[in-house]
Amino acid sequence: MCSPDDQLILALLQGGNAEQRRAIDLINARYQAGVSATARRWFPGLSPTDLAECWEEAVGDLVCRAAYGQVHGRQPLWALLSWLLRCRCTDAFRRRAGGVSAVTGEPVCPATDGPLAGLLGSDLFELVCEAIRDLPDRQRQVWSVKMQLGFNASSREIAHAIWALDGERLMPEVVRHAVDEGEKRIREYLRRKGYDL
């Protein structure tokens, strides 16, 4: 549940430009240092400039979500900001040429980044997205978040992101099961399309 400060920020985000600027100032004062420090531990290879840009994008995402009524106050703002910042940091790493691990900052081979990771960058990527859209609800929810966080995201990280997004708490075991079952269905979908992985 949101703290009184979070409720004030959410109320300001629903206001005009002046109120939104005040909300952004409060968000930066209250959350930037702590959430960014956590992101620095997740992404040690990210430069301070890139991290600052990712923070600005994450706050912008929060403002847009609030404007469209997608922030309901069922979870603390730090949790949602942590998830948004992690997604933006992951995107920053994905944009880098040569492939760099979002966790270690070391060069990686994309094909070794987890189940079905070799599909990224190939013509099969769209088929994987189609397969995810056809999954049962829980598996689709988990795999959609997994695609945003990266294939190497742990079950605990996926559960945390789902909590930040939807306010729904899932046990990592439930997430792991949905990942495993979803992967089986994705592979079966690809087999039906003529790809044997």
Describe, in plain words, how this protein is organized in 3D:
- By secondary structure, the protein is mainly α.
- The protein has two domains: 4-95; 110-192.
- It has helices spanning 4-13, 17-42, 48-67, 77-95, 125-133, 137-149, 155-166, 172-192.
- α2 crosses α3 (48-67) and α7 (155-166) crosses α8.
- It is elongated, with a radius of gyration of 18 Å.
- It starts with a helix and ends in a 5-residue tail after the last helix.
Q: What's this model, at a glance?
A:
This protein has helices spanning 4-13, 17-42, 48-67, 77-95, 125-133, 137-149, 155-166, 172-192. With 197 residues, the protein is an all-alpha fold.
Helix content: 55-70%
Number of strands: 0
Number of separate helices: 8
Give me the Rg, rounded. 18 Å
Give the CA-CA distance, first to last residue: 43 Å
- Indicate the overall shape: elongated
Low-confidence stretches: 97-116
